[in-house]
Design a protein that fits this description.
mainly alpha
């Protein structure tokens, strides 16, 4: 009986560990993608602001 309880406890603890690791991985992935999208959007906005200036310089 004690061995069955120990084995079952080990399986539950292993499952909880794997669920926790998976949740952390998913959370980090989502946050990283959000940060990358925000950085890319900021760079794109900078390029859009600088394009008219470059165009004015080249046309004059």
């Amino acid at each position: 009986m004690k061995k069955l309880f120990t084995r079952r406890l080990f399986i539950y603890m292993l499952a909880a560990f794997l669920v926790t690791i998976s949740a952390i991985f998913v959370l980090q992935t989502v946050v990283s993608q959000y940060n990358n999208n925000a950085t890319s959007q900021n760079k794109l906005d900078e390029v859009r602001r600088s394009l008219p200036t470059i165009h004015q310089i080249l046309s004059s």
